[in-house]
Amino acid sequence: MENKLDYVGQRIPRKDGPVKVAGRAKYTVDVQLPGMLVRREIARRLRRAGQVGWRRKPSQTPYEYQESLAEEAPASEADVAVLTQAFVEARYDVREFSPEEAQIVKQAWQRVRKLLRRAKRDRDKPESSDQADTD
Predict the structure, then answer these.
(1) Which of 1, 26, 29 minimizes the C-alpha distance to 13?
(2) What gap in Å lies between CA 54 and CA 41, rounded to an integer?
(3) Cα radius of gyration (the chain)
(4) pTM recorded for the entire structure
(5) For the chain, how are helix, strand and coil distributed in percent, rounded to 5?
(6) What secondary structure does DSSP assign to 2-24, as a single string?
(7) CA 57, CA 40: separation in Å to the nearest integer?
(8) How far does Cα 49 stand from its chain's mean position?
């Protein structure tokens, strides 16, 4: 088939057909880049922190955001440092996290999540009746 029009009306075998039928085809959703899971988890944490009023400013670096969170919640400073370092390594370094490292990040997040939930609950709680009207 030398002419481009020679293909018109002809069956052309698809190279990817057998692989798709056999279920061995790779799609973009199947691709796992190094650090992808950690980056996704950290992004969720940023959204959660934003929901309780600890939003990251667009101009803040991860380390600047870490400092601002440490001021807001000193109890979580060590865990936030773990999460920040994991994010930076996942985002800017091309490597996989070992299962042990991923577990450390997960545990740090669980502790920070409890703190964030408590902060959100306290923020959403109606004002106490201790502040009676002084007429």
Answers:
(1) 1
(2) 17
(3) 25
(4) 0.60
(5) 65, 0, 35
(6) -SGGGGTTS----TTHHHHHHT-
(7) 19
(8) 12
Q: Is the sign of the CA dihedral 53, 74, 64, 38 positive or negative?
A: negative
pLDDT, tens digit, for every residue of 96-117? Answer: 788 888 888 889 888 888 887 7
Place of tokens 């880049």: 33
Instruction: Let me know: does 96 contact 104? Beta carbons within 8 Å.
Output: no
Rounded CA gap, 85 and 39, in Å? 11
Q: Tokens for 34?
A: 């190094």
Give per-residue burial for 62-100: e unless 16+ CB within 10 Å, then b. beebbeebbeebeebeebbbbbbebbbbbeeeeeebeee
Cβ–Cβ < 8 Å for 52, 123: yes
Sequence-distant (6+) residues with CB within 8 A of 41 are 105, 106, 109
